[in-house]
Specification:
The structure is a single chain. The chain is mainly alpha-helical. It is built from 4 helices and no strands. The longest helix has 27 residues, at 36-62. The relative contact order is 0.06. Keywords: Membrane, Transmembrane, Transmembrane helix.
């Protein structure tokens, strides 16, 4: 009984959490609007990669890039 309720709660949560994706799938929004989440993930990835490269360059310039201390 308790296990059944836990799995039902998990199912209800993910149905609620992914509701906007269901609306995008069923609606006629066009390709660009339907993939806005993907574009946001790509944008965040590029920003984080640029920050990582900037910090890597700074560490290399300071000579502490591979210090084990």
């Amino acid at each position: 009984m308790i296990a059944s309720n836990i799995f039902r709660l998990i199912g209800d949560f993910f149905t609620w959490a992914f509701g906007p994706f269901q609306a995008l799938r069923l609606g006629d929004f066009g390709w660009w609007a339907s993939n806005i989440v993907n574009w946001l993930f790509i944008l965040v990835g590029f920003v984080l990669f640029a920050y990582w490269m900037k910090e890597s360059k700074r560490f290399q310039k300071e000579g502490i890039e591979d210090s084990a201390e």
